[in-house]
Specification:
The protein is 49% helix and 12% strand. The chain has 81 residues and is of the alpha+beta class. Strands 1-2 form a two-stranded parallel sheet. The longest helix is centred in the first third of the chain and has 15 residues.
Length: 81
């Protein structure tokens, strides 16, 4: 999260250089979920990035994939908004 605002500023500057509206760009990040019980931390990280202006968070699930993690993850992320 500490580097993201600077990277976003660089993107905005490049957009200005070429005359592109930076609002047309979806800003996304990828978060890695370390363990199936990591839903709370994922939600906290997603909220941090949301507050920094990220539009889309992609969560990479731990392997082996266990579909039972989807509901608690969705519930935790829904609380973030």
């Amino acid at each position: 999260p500490a580097e993201w605002p600077e990277l976003n500023d660089v993107l905005n500057a490049h957009c200005q250089d070429v005359g592109r509206d930076p609002g047309e760009i979806t800003r996304s990040i990828s978060l890695r979920m370390a363990t199936p019980d990591d839903c709370g931390r994922m939600a906290e990280q997603a909220a941090t990035y949301r507050d920094l202006g990220v539009d889309l968070v992609v969560v990479n699930l731990p392997q082996p994939f266990d579909p039972s993690v989807l509901e608690p993850l969705a519930t935790a992320l829904a609380e973030v908004g």
